[in-house]
Specification:
Blueprint lengths: L16 H22 L3 H13 L1 H10 L4 H40 L2 H19 L10 H14 L1 H39 L4 H39 L5 H11 L8 H13 L3 H31 L3 H15 L3 H30 L1
Protein name: AI-2E family transporter
Keywords: Membrane, Transmembrane, Transmembrane helix
Organism: Candidatus Falkowbacteria bacterium RIFCSPLOWO2_12_FULL_45_13
Length: about 350
């Protein structure tokens, strides 16, 4: 590789330090700007990378039977993944809407409003008996309903904006997944060719990152299945109807960072309370905290750490730190970045030992 001296001719005698540092500064500025430009799409692109890595066996099999037509194989793989994700979600949402409709009919036709209002007033009265010094307030169901509807109307723009953002994220995810499947191998070769490390070391790093991605996703899905099953069992024990449906909903909700199974547990506990089933509500609360909630914190790091080779404490800290820094996608990026760090440390250790052996 040739170098340029200050006069502009090629020579190995002098190293162009000013030009070299100027290039590094420009690269750093461009990298930071590129990060902020692509940051809004980080969630969709990261998910696309993860699904592209996990769906490689399916893609290769379709590629084989499609006579090596990469575009067709990538398109069919994307369609299959879309069907596998959308079909159960649509069925679940439809069933939840059906249950919500039945609940509304029950409340409207059977005097449910009065039952809920009386139960809430009874709970408030019991609360004031224990804490008599607090200021009193009355429950006006119709007033609160009107206020809720008014708030919903005033925030319809935000609701539609969030729905539009979700649709755009899903579209970007599918487009990114298609191109990563189609051109992923060429992109990988390009990164390896640009890397100053040996091809063997680059392949080791890529292999560890793929293992980390697979471990994070499989671990989270296994945790979701366990939490959904335990939720269904708890709902069945405490007499909640349609426990299989709500267990499935809790399993899917557990994949949502910072929300989890509380999205299903909290409304159910409130309904049990206002329905006068205090014992069942308290029992379900303890079941949700102990039997379901602790699974994510105790079993999750072990399942994820098994594939990444990291200690469970590091996995837990990387997930929490990733959520704090990157937002919802941090539960994936945190362990992956930490795995990359240790892969680079292993490579550094190997290169240092190799250099030491050559010098000796």
């Amino acid at each position: 590789m040739q170098t340029f001296n200050g006069a502009g001719d090629t020579s190995g005698a002098a190293r162009p330090k000013p030009q070299f540092y100027f290039l590094l500064i420009l690269m750093a500025i461009t990298f930071v700007l590129s990060f902020y430009i692509l940051r809004p799409f980080l969630f969709a692109f990261t998910l696309a990378i993860v699904f592209a890595v996990l769906s490689q066996p399916l893609y290769r099999k379709i590629l084989k039977y499609s006579f090596r037509r990469e575009t067709l194989a990538a398109f069919l793989t994307t369609v299959i993944i879309l069907i596998l994700i959308v079909t159960p979600l649509v069925a679940l949402v439809a069933q939840i809407f059906k249950e919500a409709k039945n609940l509304y009919i029950t409340l409207a036709m059977g005097g449910g409003k009065d039952v809920i209002l009386n139960s809430l007033n009874s709970l408030v009265a019991q609360f004031y008996e224990r804490f008599p010094g607090l200021p009193e307030f009355s429950l006006n169901f119709d007033q609160y309903l009107k206020q809720s509807l008014s708030w919903l109307v005033n925030h319809l723009g935000v609701v539609f904006s969030n729905v539009a953002s979700l649709m755009a994220t899903a579209f970007l995810f599918l487009i990114s997944l298609f191109y990563l499947l189609k051109d992923g191998s060429r992109l990988r070769k390009k990164i390896i060719s640009l890397s100053p490390l040996n091809d063997r070391e680059d392949e080791i790093i890529f292999k560890k990152l793929e293992q980390a991605m697979s471990s994070v996703i499989k671990g989270n899905f296994l945790i979701a299945i366990i939490q959904g099953t335990l939720t269904a069992v708890g709902f069945a024990i405490f007499g909640v109807p349609n426990f299989i449906l709500w267990g499935t909903a809790a399993g899917i909700a557990s994949l949502i960072p910072s929300v989890g199974t509380s999205l299903v547990f909290i409304p159910t506990i409130i309904l049990l309370l206002v329905g006068g089933q205090t014992f069942a509500a308290i029992g379900l609360l303890f079941w949700g905290v102990l039997a379901v909630g602790l699974i994510d914190n105790l079993l999750g790091p072990k399942l994820i750490g098994r594939g990444t080779g990291l200690h469970p404490l590091l996995i837990l800290l990387s997930v929490l730190g990733g959520l704090a820094f990157f937002g919802p996608i941090g539960f994936i990026l945190g362990p992956i970045i930490l795995s990359l760090l240790f892969a680079l440390l292993d490579t550094y250790y190997y290169l240092v030992n190799k250099k030491f052996e050559n010098n000796s």
